[in-house]
Amino acid sequence: MSEHAALRYPITGDSALEPPTAWAELRGTCPVAHVTFVSGDDATLLTRYADVKATLADPRFTRTSPDGDSARVSEESGGVLDSQMASVLPQHGEAHLVWRRTLNKWFTAKRMAALRPGITAMADRLVDEMTAAGDTADLKAAFGFPLPVWVICEILGVPEADRDRFAYWSDTLLSMTRYTRDEITAAQTEFHRYMAGHLAAKRADPGDDLLSELATGSGMSDAEIIATGQGLLVAGHETTANMIGKMAAMLLADRARWEALLADPKLVRTAVEETLRMDVNAGFGMVRYIDREFEVGGAVIEPGTTVVCSMAAANRDEDAFEGAAEMDLARTPNPHLAFGAGAHSCLGQALARTELQVALEVLLRRLPSLELAVDPEDLQRVEGLLVGGMAAVPVRWRT
């Protein structure tokens, strides 16, 4: 491993839409690098595609140490990496595979096809509300955030009146520096109390939703079901909500991209994959705790090391993608790592893809004149969360 001085992590660039120059430098000269988290704890950063994929796909390594000696993301750590979800749900081995199999049938192609008309109708409704209010909007607040929270609450069977609270709970679970530990703990307690009550109601009067099925036929404990709901909230809301805004910003930053999609809507699917690959604000990356000697990238990582895999940096690796720095809306194949790899790859990636495709299809159909209302370089990142996104995506259109 290189003996370069430790870098402060996360590494950010000057522009919300351009990668940090450090990514290419690290891939070229220091692909296994020393970094320091906001907490002051040391870790190891991987930035090359092959190294990131090999580490994420290795079934021996999990997110955190069972002994609690993993590097802390921040001084206020807490959140999704230090929660019931992290401690209750099985993290590896057969138990983890059983848990994933139990949930997988809710994210099949058949399920996504059944959900698609409802997602489309909701997206159209949100565009109706945006256009009724004028010819400008913050696309993130008015469209990007409401759509995924509606979808995940449909899956969980959450009443519409309760859905606004989910955005705050999701934020606190993904906090890195935005909230204090007391605020995180209070929100987690409130979320747990809500889910326990919701679960009891589902057990008494089951519906056609995931929590009802888990409550009445899965064999999971209440703690496991609540933690599963927590995990699905985080994975199914915040990340996709941010990605809708980022996707629109990337495609509108160069008007030729939007025009190409208007001319050939069949490109929507590959365009979604390419925006996932090109996303420079993917967030913190995936953490793995190395509990045995591990060789990667020509270096030996010692037991007791926390490794953070930057999928966003890996997705710009020229050794893995020809013309990696260029957006190719028709790129295929596109084996990006936006959803991770291996046994811990994103369980809900089929749902995320469906939501992103529908969001783009509806925006192209309903708002063909859509454009950014600010210069791309003026877009600002979200700060203090484990997921990356734009603080706002100001847009306008012709009526």
UniProtKB/TrEMBL annotation:
CDD domains: Cyp158A-like. PROSITE patterns: CYTOCHROME_P450 (PS00086). It comes from the Bacteria. Gene3D superfamilies: Cytochrome P450. It holds the Pfam family p450. Its cofactor is heme. This is Cytochrome P450. It comes from Glycomyces endophyticus.
